[in-house]
Amino acid sequence: MKKCLISVIVPAYNEEKKIGGVLKSLINSSLVDEIIIINDGSSDNTLSIVRKFKKIKLINLKKNHGKSYAIVKGIEKSIGDIVVFIDADLTGLNDSHLAKLTNPLILGKKEVVIGYPNDIKTDKLFLPLSGERAYWKKNLTPYLREMSKKGYGLELYLNYIFRNKKMQLFPLNGVKTTLKYEKQTYDIVAKLFLVESFDILSEILKQQNPISYLLKSYLYSFYIKKPNKNNNQIDKLIKYVKNNLIKKINL
């Protein structure tokens, strides 16, 4: 297998409770060549915890700029051929997960790999918005300026621009994410919920054709698939939607 440099980019905003564990997992990894932490204007002890770790590259933003801005700053400073985005609130992350994110790119089988923690029993429709992702850096470079403006709408945007590429979406078995109210104060949770919801909604509504954008960046790429021969009623419904709705909006 050809050796490729792998840079892991971790944006962090008020992640004092979990970021230490994430950094330990990444530092102990035999697959990671570079770890970049972007402290996005945290008001808790995130920065002081990060500074205790060696072998990482720290980007300290004194003001909170939002997730997408922080990630772009990390990409710009990275040296890797492959960039991997990892959230700062995970537990259970190890080399096997990082290998599943990066190997499909290295082997040329996929161009986008998205992994999602599978511990939370939530609506499956949220899976394509997972923050655990791997891309070839060269494929992201042309879009960095636009990416920096997306906030929490970044994942939708990335899904859209890579909609015709070979994607893989898979569960990160054993990886757990922390709910916002478990790690931050309620006022910050409320703020983040509103910002996240606004970013995602505005990213959809500002498009010339919001329905087409939503389907291409979200539903179509991940959920509307050709049914198998032995499929049930849900598969038949998906086929009906694909044949009747998508054609009408001229995808």
From TrEMBL:
The lineage of its organism: Bacteria, Candidatus Roizmaniibacteriota. Keywords: Glycosyltransferase, Transferase. Residues 7-133 form the Glycosyltransferase 2-like domain. It comes from the Bacteria. The keyword Glycosyltransferase applies. It holds the Pfam family Glycos_transf_2. This is Glycosyl transferase. CDD domains: DPM_DPG-synthase_like (cd04179). InterPro entries: Glyco_trans_2-like, Nucleotide-diphossugar_trans. SUPFAM superfamilies: Nucleotide-diphospho-sugar transferases. PANTHER family: POLY-BETA-1,6-N-ACETYL-D-GLUCOSAMINE SYNTHASE. GO terms for molecular function: glycosyltransferase activity. The keyword Nucleotide-binding does not apply. Belongs to the glycosyltransferase 2 family. Transmembrane segments: none annotated.
